[in-house]
């Protein structure tokens, strides 16, 4: 297993770097990528993701470019916050590139198949977030952390710890957060941007969805969001951000599942705050992937009806 020091060495010698975000990127993976990019201005760095980044992150961190195509011109490829090849959205491309290019993974989830493919795998289950690990890599690079980098790192830590409320918040996490604030991280901007937004369309959508939430025999709170519900409330999928986290607060709930109807089927997003419940295992049974705390899958209507309701 690689260390922060060895990862720093690889970044130091690389001339062109591709930072790969997982599908449906969250604050941790975005913060990790922005922190690395802004710490290495002399390098040619591209941030790549198959999905667009939500506007809320550019509001919190300022504008940044994200490409949707993974070019093979880089001499170093870095997958952030993702243990599974499939979830990168570039499975076929990365498998081919790994034969003659260097591939690094920095991640704090349970190990997945990328551990086999990668040349270097920096992994720490005790870290609250990938941003916490990236901060150590930047320290090993002996680079100063300015306010822009500090804000990116703190955003990722904030989102993955639920605002320092989840059990993954350790004393080391809090020490790092305090240090980042001293280094200029704009925590008030993070809180204001990522805090509850009283958007009318979002409130209508959540009202419709929350009225039909059910809890199955395993203690999983299940919410379904159909195309008809989105159309009725004039809302979009981005208005569902934060719903899974909110459902985790229901008393007696071990995990949450938000099912969203798409043209390809029902996309499921699983999340838990439990120390013992592993949503990644459940996602894999349903053809998806993910870690212990956050996972996802894509299912047909038949699978939703036959499997989810009987889990």
Care to give the gist of this entry?
With 311 residues, the protein is of the alpha/beta class. It has two domains: 191 residues, inorganic pyrophosphatase (n-terminal core), CATH 3.90.1640.10; 111 residues, Roll (Diaminopimelate Epimerase, Chain A, domain 1).
Please provide a written account of the structure.
The protein has 311 residues and is of the alpha/beta class. It has 2 domains: 4-194, inorganic pyrophosphatase (n-terminal core), CATH 3.90.1640.10; 200-310, Diaminopimelate Epimerase, Chain A, domain 1, CATH 3.10.310.30. Helix content is 41%, strand content 18%. It is built from 15 helices and 11 strands. The strands form 2 sheets. The chain has a 6-stranded mixed sheet with strand order 6-7-8-9-11-10. It has a 5-stranded parallel sheet with strand order 2-1-3-4-5. β8 (255-262) and β9 (265-271) form a beta hairpin. α3 packs antiparallel against α10 (187-194), α8 runs antiparallel to α9 (171-182) and α11 (200-210) crosses α12 (227-233). The longest helix has 14 residues, at 147-160. It is globular. The model has no long low-confidence stretch (mean pLDDT 91).
């Amino acid at each position: 297993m690689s260390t922060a020091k060895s990862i720093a060495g690889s970044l130091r010698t690389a001339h062109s770097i591709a930072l790969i975000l997982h599908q449906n990127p969250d604050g941790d993976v975005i913060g990790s990528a922005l922190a690395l990019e802004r710490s290495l201005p002399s390098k040619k760095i591209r941030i790549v993701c198959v999905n667009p980044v939500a506007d809320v992150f550019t509001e919190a961190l300022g504008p940044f470019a994200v490409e949707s195509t993974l070019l093979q011109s880089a001499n170093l490829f870095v997958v952030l916050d993702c243990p599974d090849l499939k979830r990168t959205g570039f499975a076929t491309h990365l498998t081919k590139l790994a034969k003659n290019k260097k591939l690094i993974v920095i991640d704090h989830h349970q190990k997945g198949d990328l551990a086999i493919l990668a040349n270097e795998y920096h992994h720490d289950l005790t870290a609250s977030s990938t941003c916490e690990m990236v901060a150590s890599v930047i320290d090993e690079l002996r680079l100063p952390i300015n306010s822009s980098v500090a804000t990116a790192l703190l955003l990722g830590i904030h989102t993955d710890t639920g605002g320092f409320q989840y059990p993954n918040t350790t004393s080391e996490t809090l020490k790092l957060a305090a240090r980042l604030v001293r280094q200029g991280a704009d925590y008030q901007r993070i809180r204001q941007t990522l805090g509850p937004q009283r958007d009318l369309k979002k409130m209508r959508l959540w009202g419709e969805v929350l009225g039909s939430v059910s809890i199955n025999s395993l203690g999983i709170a299940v919410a379904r969001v159909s195309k008809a519900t989105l159309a009725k409330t004039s809302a979009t999928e981005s208005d569902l951000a934060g719903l899974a986290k909110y459902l985790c607060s229901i008393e007696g709930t071990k995990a949450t599942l938000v099912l969203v109807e798409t043209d390809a089927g029902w996309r499921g997003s699983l999340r838990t705050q439990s120390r013992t419940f592993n949503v990644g295992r459940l996602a894999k049974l349903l053809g998806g992937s993910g870690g212990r705390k956050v996972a996802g899958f894509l299912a047909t209507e038949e699978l939703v009806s036959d499997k989810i309701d009987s889990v």
